[in-house]
TrEMBL record:
SUPFAM superfamilies: Pectin lyase-like. This is Tandem-repeating region of mucin epiglycanin-like domain-containing protein. Transmembrane segments: none annotated. Residues 53-109, 126-181 form the Tandem-repeating region of mucin epiglycanin-like domain. Pfam families: Epiglycanin_TR. InterPro entries: Pectin_lyase_fold/virulence, Tandem-repeating_mucin.
Length: 297
């Protein structure tokens, strides 16, 4: 159907092109500025064409899809206003509202979505569950499984993995921070590794590559409970195991100080061993060549 013709109803039209209008159809290729009002399965929508309602389609070349339930590919600057399941959104495409989009890439923008992979500099304004990578930015989110590739997460309640130099400004529970990632404020981070930096945190199970475990040269500025090892540095802490050359500047109760670690100030350290150095402490057991500069008991 071509050259401005209008097709009201058809079950299988191979090609709709040249500004033609198709009101209702089950299977078609729509191209060249054509308009398709309602369709159940259109293989390709391209060349600036407009599809008002469709269940399954490939949308490309600046085409616009107003409502769709399952579109395999949205690409080439296309815009998808509302959709429930879009497999791929790429090439600068914009998706305003969607419940499950597998991949958002190529600078695409997703305004609202519940489940997605966001990559290639794409921006996701609000989302509940996503993989964020490739420099993408996520402004607000409740649960993001993976934040990687220099991506930035401004606010989030639970991010499982932050890696690849990613930055998380505020978060309540981040399971893993790795690859030089930076977390400014967080209440519970399970793992911090790979040279990552955690500025403020209340309970982090593992800090490595720096809070049950602080290792791999990581730095933790403030924390309440930690194991410190592998040259890590803890500035202030209330209860910790310190080992492997780690340094603890101030602490109130550290169960074990071992492996050449250095503790500058502490009120109650149960065991100081393995060549460790304790500058000031009130109650401690000192063994294995350790050095204690000042202590009351």
């Amino acid at each position: 159907v071509k050259r401005g013709a209008r097709l009201v109803s058809n079950s299988a039209a191979s090609v709709i092109k040249g500004g033609a209008s198709l009101v209702s159809n089950s299977a078609a290729v729509i191209k060249g500025g054509a308009r398709l009002v309602s369709n159940s399965a259109a293989t390709v929508i391209k060349g600036g064409a407009r599809l008002v309602s469709n269940s399954t389609a490939v949308i490309k070349g600046g085409a616009r899809l107003v409502s769709n339930s399952a579109a395999s590919v949205i690409k080439g600057g296309a815009r998808l206003v509302s959709n429930s399941a879009a497999a791929v959104i790429k090439g600068g495409a914009r998706l305003v509202s969607n419940s499950a989009a597998s991949v958002i890439k190529g600078g695409a923008r997703l305004v609202s979505n519940s489940t997605a992979v966001i990559k290639g500099g794409a921006r996701l304004v609000s989302n509940s569950t996503a993989v964020i990578k490739g420099g993408a930015r996520l402004v607000s989110k409740s649960a993001a499984a993976v934040i990687k590739g220099g991506a930035r997460l401004v606010s989030n309640s639970a991010a499982s993995v932050l890696k690849g130099g990613a930055r998380l400004v505020s978060n309540s529970a981040a399971s893993v921070l790795k690859g030089g990632a930076r977390l400014v404020s967080n209440s519970a981070a399970s793992v911090i590794k790979g040279g990552a930096r955690l500025v403020s945190n209340s309970a982090a199970a593992v800090i490595k590559g720096a809070v049950s475990v602080i290792k791999g040269g990581a730095r933790l500025v403030s924390n309440s409970t930690a194991v410190l090892k592998g040259g890590a540095r803890l500035v202030s802490n209330s209860a910790a195991v310190i080992k492997g050359g780690a340094r603890l500047v101030s602490n109130s109760a550290a169960a074990v100080i071992k492996g050449g670690a250095r503790l500058v100030s502490n009120s109650a350290a149960s065991v100081i061993k393995g060549g460790a150095r304790l500058v000031s402490n009130s109650a401690a057991v000192i063994k294995g060549g350790a050095r204690l500069v000042s202590n009351s008991a």
